Amino acid sequence: SILILGACGQIGTELTLELRKRHGSEAVIATDIRHGDAQLKESGPFELLDATDYAAIEDVVMHHEVEEVYLMAAMLSATAEKFPMRAWNLNMGSLFNVLNLGKERKIDKIFWPSSIAVFGPNTPKKETPQNTLMEPSTVYGISKQAGERWCEYYFKKFGVDVRSVRYPGLISWKTLPGGGTTDYAVEIYREAIAHGQYTCFLKKGTQLPMMYMDDAIRATLQLMDADPERLTIRSSYNLAAMSFAPEEIAETIQQKVPGFKMDYKPDFRQEIADSWPNSIDDSKAREDWGWKPVYDLEKTTEEMVSQLNKLR
Ligand code: VAH
Question: Is position 167 annotated as part of the catalytic site?
Fold first, then answer.
């Protein structure tokens, strides 16, 4: 079966639902440190599990005959700046747990998410290449860079089949975002529909790589299903769909929500965003495993506004 660590998170929730659709509910064990909302528990097995507890994960793996693990538990960029040591311990401790289960041949395949946060202030910002200068300046980015190095090391030294993508900022409606710097691109839709107004914590012109969640989930499963012989990257694949600045997403929302107003109040997250790329070159993912995005900004706004309106 398949084990999801961090199943209540922004990506974990949607990965769990999609994997259950594809493999049947009973085949996907959703776990998290906390109880999420009902939708996960209604759709299949759920257990409380701390991703930093090796023995506890090993028990679940043996008991449920787990072959594949998706490690979606982490502390994201903004929160990690507030609790650096807790972020490092969670992000790295959980990764070593699953990599070592792979090394012990207790599981066969691992997915671990990296992020555009792995790039730093002196990384080329336009069409950032797969291999380039990376001096991440955030706790979260440092944990992603170290994590990528360990994934490649465990693949080369111990043959662990670990696969990874560098997610851009992700936009979705099923869950609230979890303490990231790109969260403005999720909050803006909810606020626009609820109050017709949004105060953005990043300033005009802050262009960031972004992706609609359906594309991110599809990319993840496409990589996991790919023929391993075709995979030339075992650190983490660049992945891209679109890039935009706050005023551009606001513009598309104004077309759907007449009178929507946005103002700007940059906070500590501006410095984090300024250290990240404007756009990403994902040609390696396209060559190696056929990646191709579907959602651009127009389609994303169309989908987000219509789905959130249904929830009202
Ligand atoms: C964050 N959404 O903002 C996450 C992601 C690309 C950003 O890693 O921290």
Answer: no
